[in-house]
Amino acid sequence: MSTNLANLLYLIPIVAFILALRFLSNPATARRGNQIGAVGMLVAIVVTWIHVGSASWWAIVVAMAIGGGFGAVAARRVKMTAMPQMVALFNGVGGGAAALIALAELHRILPEPGRPKIDIALAIALSGLIGAISFSGSLIAFAKLQELIRGRPITYPGQKVLNLALLGVCVVLSVVLVSGVQDEWLLWLVIGGAVLFGVLFVLPIGGADMPVVISLLNAFTGLAVAVGGFELENNVLIVAGMLVGASGTLLTLMMGRAMNRSIANVLFGAFGQVSAGAAAAAESDGGSVRSAGAEDVAVMLAYAHKVVFVPGYGLAVAQAQHDVRQLADLLEDKGVEVSYAIHPVAGRMPGHMNVLLAEANVPYPQLKEMDEANSEFSRTDVALVVGANDVVNPDARNNEGSPIYGMPILNVDDAQTVVVLKRSMNPGFAGIENPLFYNPKTVMLFGDAKESIDRLIEDVKSL
To answer: Strand 382-386 and strand 417-422: pairing?
Structure first.
């Protein structure tokens, strides 16, 4: 296949990726977006295979069968609670692949007479550096989300200076590589240093900031893939990588804005390292926790005019999204107005709650973004908080000493009554206490979220 024909056919996957990204921006069309993207990728692989050709075609078939089989099985079997981990892991694989391509390309061109062009050498260095950082950083994010290592920030004296020095060494080695000392061992040093930097870069970031970190590392992977496209002179890689890089960067900035924090503060602030004493302060002011039984909460819900569900990571852990949908349907049958308040950073990855509720076929118009939801809480009879913690913490508004002060939250305390479904009084993923639990209008329904919702369903049915 000629290069001109290949480039013409590459327009098909390029258009498909753009359309996929467009459809993925709306939960109602996200499935179609995934399908379009998959078809585009298949076309890109087939065209590249025919255009490049290979004597080792059987090796490519075996590799595709192994990788494709693993991806299909993992995507089908993964639980919604583990979806952020899978996203982090797959993202790391993409970054690692970009770094390996840089090594392979340098190995291929070194025997050729003359030095490689400076643009190709620069692309190889950047692809190896950025891809390796994304690879190891994503693995640490995976380990934190999977609780293989603790979610709190892991810090040590001189950490920022060491990280900066290590990154500086990697950059200097990259410059040396580009300037003419084009030996494979030099690129191995760059990639090795970048892998170590990726580990040290993510370790000090608290688990509550993992959604932002995953989004940022996704942007890194996209950039590494785009640079790899310049190495291989492959237009579809360049476009696909830039789409991922640009969208990941925009999403990172939007999530930082949603938390009212700069990206620098997210990456270097060690958020969650020190716990706030909100609970002790509440108790000293005479605050106390009120608990209620499922029967009492069912009465509140059944005779309310408006109920707002506020989902959090606890909903995903309990796999209670289908039960919440069933409870909402029961309440609607009784004439209750039902909606869902979605915080931009609820859960463990961007859009986690939207995906979770879409799995339960919750009508998309019932999903209210934060600004719209906050305007409705004042006329809400019951706000039912299911496993959320930090995104409903009023310290973000009232306590200047709180690590989350200034972060926009869901103003559930504006509702007439707040019911919180929670296993215990343990703090959320950010590691800070929540004075909402001591608010006189708040009642706690302790227990597994799924079991609590099931009890509420039975009690609402009997009313």
So the answer is: parallel
**DSSP annotation of 438:** G
**Which residue out of 323, 329, 333, 390 is catalytically annotated?**
390
pLDDT for res 151: 67
What is the rounded distance in angstroms from the CA atom of residue 343 to the CA atom of residue 340?
Answer: 10
| pLDDT tens-digit readout, 55-97 | 677 777 888 889 888 888 888 888 766 778 888 888 999 999 9
333 catalytic residue (yes or no)? no
According to DSSP, residue 425 is labeled S
CA torsion sign for 105, 111, 113, 116 is positive
Domains of the chain are 78-268 (no CATH), 278-461 (3.40.50.1220)
Q: Is the dihedral of CA 151, 131, 345, 401 positive or negative?
A: positive
Average of per-residue pLDDT across 249-269: 74
Task: Give me 441's structure tokens.
Answer: 């209008």
Q: Which of 163-167, 180-184, 326-330, 433-437 has the lowest mean pLDDT?
A: 180-184
57: left (phi over 0), alpha (psi -120 to 50) or beta: alpha
